[in-house]
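EI: anyone free to look at a 285-residue chain?
SC: sure, send it
EI:
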Amino acid sequence: MNLPFQMSLKHKVAIVTGGSGVLGRSLVMALAEAGAKVAVLGRTQEKLSVIEEEADRLEGEVKGFSVDVLNKKHLEKVRDDIREQFGFCDILINGAGGNHHDGTTSKDYFDKSDLEGVKKDVKSFFDLEPEGINYVLQLNFLGTLLPTQVFAEDMVHKKAASIVNISSMNAFSPLTRIPAYSGAKAAVSNFTQWLAVHFSQTGIRVNAIAPGFFLTEQNYSLLVTEEGSPTERAQKILNQTPMNRFGEAEELKGTVLWLVNDQASSFVNGVVIPIDGGFSAYSGV
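SC: here you go
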């Protein structure tokens, strides 16, 4: 991996939640290559072990911790372990998140016939399950709030600390079919601004990135056919993206490294930065 610019995070302790996914893993490696000690929080120990092995090859100092980001007591236990092994947190990347099929409609637009049960495989707005919606809201919003409560307690004693939340382009303009996820990410963006103000008299800056469309393990089957071509939904996304492609995980790291480096962005606070190939700038005409 090559960093987009030279910088040093030596002596910094970074914590990345959701760091075992495609996008999170890229950020973990970038932070490690910049010299930070990186604690990766995820649910699956097997995936965490793979990241540790990859970091070893890059001579990065990375340690995985299996934890549920919705379990505050477990997070506090992990925080104590990280303090003992690495020290107190300087950088927090809140990357845990995701969607659930029970909070997703099967069609873009509602039709009255959907209520009549003509098509059994149609899930309309009225069929969304509270459990699925609650899961998405909890994972994305509470899964950002709780780690911040736990790890920012370390950071308020620092002269320069940084929190970067992972929002989404859905927060700016909701996509069809995924109301729970769009609403949850809008909450993350709003919470980012609230935190930035709340912590503004301390040494903590709080910002967020809003990735556009990247291929991940979660969305790959929704965006790519078995033949390897874009699905109908993916083609709509590409048509609305002026750069006419999906983003690469590597294309997030430059913005994140800039945000966590106090020498580079010490007066940047409370912003949500789109990384979307021009999606948010294009009207469709």
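EI: The mean pLDDT is 93.
SC: 👍
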